[in-house]
Design goal:
By secondary structure, the chain is of the alpha+beta class. The protein is built from 20 helices and 13 strands. The strands form four sheets. It has a six-stranded antiparallel β-sheet with strand order 1-5-4-3-2-6.
Length: 484
C-alpha cells in the first residue's frame, strides 16, 4: 500500500481544512472592504460564508474510520476523494482517499486498499487520540474520565473509571461514577447490589429499593393518580357544559354528575365545582359529593354548610350531612364542634344550629363554652388628624378621653350583627376636605343566641347565658347518667 504522508505545523495550517477555507474567504471579504459592493452581492457573500461555517460545524462534528483490507484502521476525517481526477479516470485502481488525523497529519490511501469507511462523532475520535497517549496513572485517567463526562461519553468514561480501579480499587469517585454501592464497608457493583437486595425481599423502584408491599402501594397510588388526572379533564369539561349555551350538553353534564360514584373524582370536583364563584356549580358539588363513598365527604359538606356565601347552598349541604350514615355523621359532628371556636361569629352560630339538627348531646360541653365568644372586628375610624379611637386588648377603651363608638354600633358589634366590621366616618360638611381614616381591630364578647337555642333543644333546660350554671347542671347530669 502506498501511504505518502505530509507534515503540518500549527503555525502554517489548521487542523480542520474547512476552517482554512472559511477563514480565507473571510479575509478576502475584509480585503475588499474599501470597494463598493452592491447589496445583492453583499447578501450572496454573507450567505456563502454562513454556508461554509455550517459546513465547518458539520465537519467538526463527525469523523471517519477507514478500515483497510489488511485489517488496519486509519482514524480521522476524509478531506478529499480523488475520484474525479484524470488519473482516476484513466486508471480507477489509482484513485485515492486522503484522511486527516486528529494530530493534523494527512494520510493518502488507495481506494482499492479500503474495505469500509464508517463515520462516528469527532469527539469519540478525539477521545481515542487522548487515550492512546495517556499516562497510566490515577490522576491522568480521572482527568480523562471527567473530560468524557463533560462531553457525554458514557461508555468511554466507564473505561477510564475501570482503569482507575485497577490502579486503586478503593477510589471512591470511580466507584460512585460506575454506580457502585458501599454497604458494611464493602463496595458492590450495580449487578451485585441488585442481586443482594432482591435476595432480601426488596425490589427496585425509581432509583431506590422498597419492599414488595411498598411497591404494590406505590403502584396503586400511581394508578389512582392517573385516574384522578383523567377526572380533572372530565370534570373541567362537564363544568363548562353546565354553564354553556347548549341545553343538550347541560343536560348531559347534569346526568354525568348524577351518575358519578368514583371517589377518585373528588379532587377535581373540589377544584372546578366547590371553588367556583358560580353558585350553580357549588350546588351541583353538594348533590354530587353526598353520593360518593369517600372519607373526606363529611368534612367537605360541613365546610360548605358553614362558609358558603349562598344560604340555599349552605342549607343543601346541611341536609346532605343529616342524610349521612352514622359513622360519617360522627365525623361531621366533630367538624361542627371544632367550628364552635371559629374566628367568625357567623360560623359559630351556624355550627351550633347544625349540632342542634344532628341532636348531638356529645356537643353539650362545647356548646356551653361557646355561649359567649370573643371575636375581632375591623373598624375604620377617622385618622390621626381627628379624634381617634383607642382600644385595650380586651376590647375596652384604653384612653378614657378617646371618642367612643356610637352606642348603636357598639351594641350591634356585641350582638354579632356586624360580622365584617364597621366603618365609622365623622360628619363631612359640603366643601370640606374628605376625612382621613384608618382601620383598627375591636375585640368584642358576643352572646350567641343560636348556641343557647341548641342547648335548650338538646337538654330541655334554659340557664340563659350563665355558663357557670350550665356547667353545674351538666356535672349533675353526668353523675345521674354515670353507671352505678
Amino acid at each position: 500500500m502506498n501511504v505518502p504522508r505530509t507534515g503540518a505545523t500549527a503555525e502554517t495550517r489548521s487542523r480542520h481544512p474547512v476552517a482554512d477555507h472559511a477563514v480565507g474567504f473571510a479575509d478576502a471579504l475584509a480585503s475588499r472592504g474599501s470597494q463598493r459592493i452592491s447589496p445583492g452581492a453583499r447578501f450572496r457573500r454573507a450567505s456563502l460564508l454562513a454556508g461554509l461555517l455550517v459546513g465547518l460545524a458539520m465537519a467538526m462534528a463527525r469523523s471517519d474510520v477507514v478500515t483497510l483490507r489488511s485489517g488496519g484502521r486509519v482514524h480521522g476525517r476524509i478531506v478529499s476523494a480523488d475520484e474525479q481526477s484524470r488519473t482516476a479516470a484513466a486508471a480507477p485502481e489509482q484513485a485515492v482517499v486522503t484522511v486527516e488525523t486528529v494530530a493534523g497529519v494527512r494520510v493518502t490511501i488507495r481506494k482499492r486498499d479500503i474495505a469500509a469507511i464508517t463515520r462516528r462523532p469527532w469527539v469519540v475520535e478525539e477521545y481515542h487520540w487522548k487515550a492512546a497517549t495517556l499516562p497510566d496513572t490515577v490522576d491522568a485517567h480521572w482527568r480523562l474520565a471527567e473530560w468524557c463526562r463533560e462531553h457525554d461519553l458514557r461508555r468511554e468514561r466507564a473505561e477510564q473509571l475501570e482503569a482507575i480501579l485497577k490502579l486503586d480499587p478503593q477510589h471512591r469517585g470511580a466507584r460512585l461514577g460506575l454506580g457502585h454501592r458501599l454497604r458494611d464497608g464493602r463496595w458492590y457493583t450495580p449487578e451485585e447490589f441488585d442481586a443482594m437486595m432482591r435476595s432480601e425481599g426488596y425490589v427496585p423502584y425509581k432509583g431506590r429499593y422498597v419492599t414488595r408491599q411498598e411497591f404494590e402501594l406505590l403502584a396503586q397510588a400511581k394508578t389512582e393518580e392517573k385516574k384522578r388526572q383523567e377526572w380533572f379533564r372530565k370534570v373541567r369539561l362537564w363544568s363548562g357544559w353546565l354553564t354553556g349555551a347548549s341545553n343538550a350538553r347541560r343536560l348531559a353534564a347534569v346526568e354525568n354528575f348524577r351518575e358519578l360514584r368514583d371517589p377518585d373524582a373528588l379532587p377535581a370536583l373540589v377544584r372546578f365545582l366547590a371553588a367556583s364563584p358560580d353558585v350553580r356549580l357549588r350546588r351541583v358539588f353538594v348533590q354530587t359529593v353526598k353520593r360518593l363513598p369517600a372519607e373526606a365527604v363529611p368534612a367537605l359538606l360541613v365546610n360548605v354548610s358553614l362558609v358558603d356565601a349562598d344560604r340555599t347552598t349552605r342549607s343543601q349541604a346541611l341536609q346532605a350531612v343529616l342524610q349521612l350514615p352514622p359513622p360519617a355523621r360522627g365525623i361531621a359532628e366533630q367538624g361542627y364542634i371544632a367550628a364552635l371556636r371559629h374566628p367568625s361569629n357567623a360560623v359559630v352560630r351556624r355550627a351550633a344550629a347544625a349540632l342542634a339538627e344532628l341532636q348531638s348531646r356529645t356537643a353539650i360541653p362545647a356548646l356551653i363554652e361557646a355561649l359567649i365568644t370573643e371575636h375581632a372586628y375591623p373598624v375604620r375610624v377617622p385618622g390621626s388628624d381627628t379624634p381617634s379611637y383607642s382600644f385595650s386588648p380586651s376590647g375596652g377603651f384604653a384612653n378614657p378621653y378617646a371618642v367612643p363608638l356610637p352606642p348603636e354600633i357598639d351594641l350591634a358589634l356585641r350582638a354579632g350583627q356586624l360580622p365584617f366590621g364597621v366603618y365609622v366616618q365623622k360628619q363631612v360638611f359640603p366643601g370640606s376636605p374628605e376625612a382621613k381614616t384608618r382601620v383598627v381591630t375591636v375585640v368584642r364578647s358576643v352572646k350567641n343566641p343560636s348556641v343557647r337555642e341548641a342547648l335548650q333543644k338538646l337538654t330541655g333546660q334554659d340557664y340563659g347565658y350563665d355558663e357557670q350554671a350550665w356547667r353545674q347542671w351538666w356535672l349533675r347530669e353526668k353523675q345521674v347518667l354515670a353507671p352505678q
